UniProtKB/TrEMBL annotation:
Organism annotation: Sphingomonas changnyeongensis
Keyword Membrane: no
Catalysed conversion reaction: Release of an N-terminal amino acid, Xaa-|-Yaa- from a peptide, amide or arylamide. Xaa is preferably Ala, but may be most amino acids including Pro (slow action). When a terminal hydrophobic residue is followed by a prolyl residue, the two may be released as an intact Xaa-Pro dipeptide
Domain Peptidase M1 alanyl aminopeptidase C-terminal: 537-851
Name assigned to this protein: Aminopeptidase N
Keywords: Aminopeptidase, Hydrolase, Metal-binding, Metalloprotease, Protease, Zinc
Length: 851
């Protein structure tokens, strides 16, 4: 398949200022009539009009009302046009019910809905399907009234009515020019939660969240989050909503989290529906975060969009940063930052260190769907955050204002964004641009030499080669740094922001009253790996006294990581961790959410990232030994917490959420300790729960145990929630994440369960995605875990290539494992690659993983 390159960008030859679409909707066969007014662009002299297609049948084509001829070029059609402005009319037939890829117009649980980003619109009608073509859309839909009583599209409903034969129609108009990837329509039998928002300038906006009738009681949290997001973007970024309608529709079958279509967001139902009985606290946070994210796209993505797909991080990195800021403002900023960094380290660092590494602004792709990655999204957000850190909020905000003002209504590049921040914020970001072009996670070494009342901090940076990028240059790395007194734990002087510009630097400190302990990359000010040797006593001191909560967390994480790594080399000493943990537990009453984060040991995957060659069984065993030691030494504390944190009536406050989280962690430490009462406590928590957080927490603890209560709890959970897809997903994923040695066998059996289906991406992620993230089970030494996931990829590829391709990256880490596992992993990659007719999606991920 061809490689698309950023350097090959050419501006469009034709513009399409107006589009009129007319849909005769039907699940089996939908007719699409499109009228495009096309205008030759400056660069279009002598060029044909090229319209992308996606395998649909073209029934007729007219130019200025007259039947016309065309040429084909793969899936595209080319039309030679004599003049500079023409009217193109096409008529196509598509088949939503058999659209299992879930791109374009497809059926989901009796609804018809669309997903166009990145290149789905071409599967609906022939169109120059690229984000730098901005058009005004008018959409007419006609359908059977009983099956599809609700007809929605972008913008405002301007007309509609009944038709003979039980049919009806509606017409919508979106006044804002938009790229085709933001087009949306929905038809179906939906109920609506309506509300209203008054913007800062006094305009009323009608809000609607559309779901299946029975789901209406679960839409309140999403609606509250939507209104909070609208107010937040006005207050923090000065951005107001611009249409008089904002609709959200929840659908059960969706490849991704949600989609920011102009005025008509379409969501995976798992990011809309929440009530205490079926959604965990984490689900509640995810709903609010994704609702905010899609809403914020209205400015960062829709009003200002991407010139081409290489610029994806322009909208995604910025919008993730904005949703992170929003969530931080809604609850504990410290805990939110810890969660963001945990995700970055779990998903992005491994990507940056493996064969699929790519810059935040990629240089080439085969299938753009493969580039909706943690690098583009989450590292992209870190780049924005670094700019905000270096400029300070006020200057950064002035840069954002200039960006939005200057580029409103345009399709632009990451370079345009950086230039606006530079000019509006009065900064020089010339070397900072390297962060967009260089892949890989920088390593910073830090040593602090102390002499008398002075000290010298020596820093170096390096960046390893990544595919296609053998040699790298130093980048500006903003590091928030403070020193603490080794005796008193007091901070010595102010925190400093040090921007490491070159390969190495020496920073002097003076006037130090006692030996200093280094606190560096506070708040995780840069997405780098810091290598610095601090003895256990210093880490314990920081974990007790650092006044940056992220740095406190980080110190205890480092101490636990060092302890596990030492164990793997035969040196077992759990005492410093236990002492530090006892200290941290002193804060459990004051800040349970923070303590819950702090006491969790680093994941097996994160530990593996620090080893030259990973033996997953050994990592699992060492980490379990640490958990057992922490559990056992502090068992009375855990028992006490488990008793004390038993909540009264359910509340969704930050304190109540933190309490629930810490309570279940206490329970799991009791299991780790082998406490005789752990299983009975888990069962009691499971049975008495008045919310999903407590119930699933207890279930997860039992699922990894040998307790007699385990099968009982799994069966009771299934019976209680049978038919509730989002909860049954949890039932699948909880079992797939079990640390028991027989997990693979259980997962193979679950893949044959009547409720398992490859047709629903949530279900696939719940079972197969969760299993592939289970380090011990996926990497089972006999290779059967690899074989199972590879079989699933091959089975899914013909149905849904996007979702199939997302399961390939765990195989790409083969170089990090022992030779036997590496051989087994590459054998599966080769087995996949040998299958004829692979999708572009899977082909790209597998072939790159082998390279
Ligand atoms: N922009 C969409 C992503 C759609 C991905 C399709 N492959 C969701 C989001 O980031 O908001
Ligand atoms: Zn997004």
């Amino acid at each position: 398949p061809p490689i698309i390159r950023r350097a090959d960008y050419v501006p469009p030859a034709w513009r399409v200022p107006e589009v009129a679409l007319d849909f005769m909707l039907d699940a089996d066969e939908t007719w699409v009539r499109a009228t495009l007014s096309v205008v030759r662009a400056d660069s279009g002299a002598g060029m044909p009009l090229a319209l992308d297609g996606g395998g649909q049948k073209l029934v007729s084509l007219r130019v200025d009302g007259v039947p016309a001829t065309w040429r084909t070029d793969g899936d595209r059609i080319l039309i030679d046009l004599p003049g500079n402005a023409h009217r193109i009319e096409t008529e196509c037939v598509i088949h939503p019910a058999t659209n299992t890829q879930l791109m374009g117009l497809y059926a989901s649980g009796g609804l018809l809905c669309t997903q166009c980003e990145a290149e789905g619109f071409r599967r609906i009608t022939f169109f120059p399907d690229r984000p730098d073509i901005l058009s005004r859309y008018t959409v007419r839909m006609e359908a059977d009234r009983a099956t599809y009583p609700v007809l929605l599209a972008n913008g405002d409903r301007i007309n509609g009515g009944d038709l003979p034969g039980g049919r009806h129609w509606a017409q919508w108009r979106d006044p804002f020019p938009k790229p085709s990837y933001l087009f949306a329509l929905v038809a179906g039998d939906l109920a609506v939660n309506r509300d209203r928002f008054i913007t800062r300038s006094g305009r009323g906006v009608d809000l609607g969240i559309w779901v299946r009738e029975g789901d209406l009681p679960r839409t309140g949290h999403a609606m509250a989050a939507l209104k909070a997001s609208m107010a937040w973007d006005e207050r923090v970024y000065g951005r107001e909503y611009d249409l008089s309608v904002f609709n959200i529709v929840a659908v059960a079958d969706f490849n991704f989290g949600a989609m920011e279509n102009k005025g008509l967001n379409i969501f995976n139902s798992r990011y809309i529906l929440a009530d205490p009985e079926t959604a965990t606290d984490a689900d509640y946070d995810a709903v609010a975060g994704v609702v905010a994210h899609e809403y914020f796209h209205n400015w960062s993505g829709n009003r200002v969009t991407c010139r081409d797909w290489f610029q994806l991080s322009l909208k995604e990195g910025f919008t993730v940063f904005r949703d992170q800021q929003f969530s931080a403002d809604q609850g504990s900023a410290a805990v939110k930052r810890i969660e963001d960094v945990r995700l970055l380290r779990a998903a992005q660092f491994p990507e940056d260190g493996g064969p699929l590494a790519h810059p935040v602004r990629p240089d080439s792709y085969i299938e753009i769907s493969n580039f909706y990655t943690a690098t583009v999204y989450n590292k992209g957000a870190e780049l924005i955050r670094m700019m905000a850190t270096m400029l300070g909020w006020d200057r950064f905000r002035r840069g954002c204002d200039l960006y939005f003002d200057r580029h409103d209504g345009q399709a632009v590049t990451c370079e345009d964004f950086v230039r606006a921040i530079e000019e509006g914020g009065e900064a020089d970001l010339s070397r900072f641009r390297l962060w967009y072009s260089q892949a890989g996670t920088p390593r910073v070494t830090a040593t602090l030499d102390h002499h008398g009342t002075a000290a010298t901090l020596r820093l170096t940076q390096s960046l390893a080669a990544t595919p296609g990028q053998p040699v790298k240059q130093p980048m500006p790395i903003p590091l928030r740094v403070a020193l603490f007194g080794a005796e008193t734990g007091r901070r010595l002087g102010e925190e400093r922001l040090i921007v490491l510009e070159d390969a190495a630097a020496e920073i002097p400190f003076e006037g130090l009253a006692e030996r200093p302990v280094l606190s560096i990359n506070r708040g995780f000010s840069a997405p780098v790996i810091v290598e610095t040797t601090r003895p256990a006593a210093d880490l314990a001191l920081l974990s007790a006294h650092d006044d940056d909560p992220f740095a406190r967390y980080e110190a205890l994480q480092q101490l636990m990581l060092d302890t596990i790594l030492a164990d793997l080399q035969g040196r077992i000493d759990h005492a410093p961790v236990i002492a530090a943990m006892r200290d941290v537990l002193g804060d459990a009453a004051r800040d349970p959410a923070f303590v819950a984060e702090a006491v969790l040991p680093p994941s097996e995957a994160f530990v593996g990232d620090h080893l030259p060659a990973i033996d997953p069984e050994a990592v699992h065993a060492a980490r379990e030994r640490l958990r057992a030691a922490i559990g056992g030494a502090l068992v009375d504390d855990w028992r006490g917490l488990h008793d004390r944190l038993k909540a009264g009536a359910y509340e969704l406050t930050p304190a109540a959420k933190g309490g629930r989280r810490l309570r279940t962690i206490a329970l799991s430490y009791m299991f780790a300790a082998g406490a005789a009462d752990a299983a009975a406590r888990a069962w009691a928590q499971f049975e008495a729960a008045d919310n999903m957080t407590d119930r699933q927490g207890a279930l997860a603890a039992l699922a990894s145990s040998d307790a007699a209560e385990r099968p009982r709890a799994l069966a009771a959970f299934y019976d209680r929630y049978r038919g509730d897809a989002l909860v049954i997903d949890k039932w699948f994923s909880t079992q797939a994440l079990s640390t028991r040695p027989d997990t693979l066998r259980a997962v193979i059996a679950l893949a044959a369960h009547p409720d398992f289906t490859l047709a629903n991406p949530n279900r696939v992620r719940a079972l197969i995605g969760a299993f592939a993230a289970n380090q011990r089970a996926f990497h089972q030494a006999d290779g059967q875990g690899y074989r199972f996931v590879a079989d699933m990829i091959l089975a899914l590829d013909p149905i849904n290539p996007q979702t199939a391709a997302r399961m390939v990256p765990p195989f790409g880490r083969w170089r990090r494992f022992d030779p036997d596992r590496a051989t087994l992993m590459t054998a599966e990659l080769n087995r996949i690659l040998a299958v004829p007719g692979l999708s572009r999606d899977v082909f790209e991920q597998v072939s790159k993983s082998l390279a």
